[in-house]
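Review form for a predicted model. The reviewer records the input and the model, then writes brief findings.
Reviewer: anonymous (R2)
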Amino acid sequence: MREEVLTDELWARLEPLIPVRARRFRYPGRRRADDRAALEGILYVVRTGIGWNRLPTALFGASGATCWRRLTEWHEAGAWQRLHERLLAELRAAGLLDLSAMLVDSTHLRALKGGNHTGPSPVDRRKSGSKHHLITDATGVPLAITLTGGHRNDVTQLIPLIDAVPPIRGLIGKPRRRPRRLYADRGYDHDKYRRLLRARGITPVIARRGVEHGSGLGTIRWPVERTFAWIKGFRRLRLRTERRADVHQAILSVACSIICLRKLILN
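Model under review:
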């Protein structure tokens, strides 16, 4: 898919969600950079992983500092989250969302500069790291993704991750938030959390520790691993270079929205 088409489609959905800032009549100061130009700069950084201070201003009409401020400003206003929810509703309306089951998984990434939500990574010689916790529908569409320190146990994030799934509209009737079944690997094997899932009306299908491999869950869970590969395709998310957790979370929301939009356009 051409990036110009993707950006056009993304902008058409994002623009109504951006808060309007009225310009002062007296002493208006310097005119703000164009929001569309800022979006193009943000997408360039997310795709390529280039530093904000190295973004070519002449190419986009907005400096890296301006793009960084718009990213955080729109995140604080909830624009990225509402964009993701809107795309999920469009996917559900088009019959491209399978909410009968959900898949969960996590992945480590190194945090080069430390910051919020970091910790000693048990899989990287206790170097500073973070974790992405992801929940998808049965086909791998990202529903919610959260950020924690690299030392946090996966199972402790299971319930917060399920609660992070937004009400998904798109069809007549009550919005969907809960699946009938939830699939997870051995990292989520704990009877307490099985009980908590059943209390929410969700049937847990979780691999057991201490048993031989070959449960067959891999044939069902592979879409969530593929989605992580898509997320790592955004070079800014391969390593954590943002000290502020909210800025990194905003970039995660941008990536999830792009993945949803690609599926919507290509199907």
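Findings: The CA atoms of residues 71 and 250 lie 7 Å apart.
Further findings: The longest helix spans residues 245-266.
Recommendation: see findings above.
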